[in-house]
């Protein structure tokens, strides 16, 4: 039975073969995937891939509207559509 800190699903379980030939379970940290655009699903540029606990880290977001949430292509398209709709 693993110790209580390792029983949560926060850690990923991997089967590992030891040099002695036994199969044991190792517990590894899960890594976050690259942040993606909420509209098209493309990976976002300029944002760290690492799993970060606090948001007070430099380089976490982009300094434009919807930065870190929507990619630049989708934002440009949305702005164009907003201008076209407001002109009519």
What is the count of helical runs? 1
Mean pLDDT: 84
Q: What form results from the Cα inertia axes?
A: rod-shaped
Bin the helical content.
Answer: 10-25%
Structural class determined from secondary elements: alpha+beta
Give Rg in angstroms. 21 Å
Q: What's the SSE pattern?
A: EEH
Poorly predicted spans: none
Percentage beta strand = 15-25%
Please give the order of strands in the largest beta sheet: 1-2
Q: Tell me about the biggest sheet? A: 2 strands, antiparallel
End-to-end Cα distance: 68 Å
Question: Would you report the number of β strands?
Answer: 2
Explained architecture:
The structure is a single chain. The protein starts with 10 loop residues before the first strand and ends with a helix. A two-stranded antiparallel sheet has the order 1-2. Helices cover 18% and strands 16% of the residues. The chain is rod-shaped and about 75 Å long. The chain is of the alpha+beta class. The longest helix is centred in the last third of the chain and has 16 residues, at 72-87. The chain contains 1 helix and 2 strands; from the N terminus they run E-E-H.
Write the layout of secondary structure elements.
Blueprint: E1 11-17, E2 23-29, H1 72-87
Antiparallel strand pairs: 1-2
């Amino acid at each position: 039975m693993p110790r209580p800190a390792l029983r949560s699903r926060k850690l990923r379980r991997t089967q590992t073969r030891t040099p002695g030939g036994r199969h044991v379970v190792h517990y590894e940290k899960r890594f976050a995937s690259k942040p993606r655009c909420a509209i098209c699903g493309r990976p976002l540029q300029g944002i760290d891939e690492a799993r970060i606990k606090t948001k007070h880290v430099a380089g976490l977001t982009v300094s434009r509207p919807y930065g870190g949430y929507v990619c630049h292509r989708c934002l440009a398209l949305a702005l164009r559509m907003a201008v076209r709709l407001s002109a009519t």
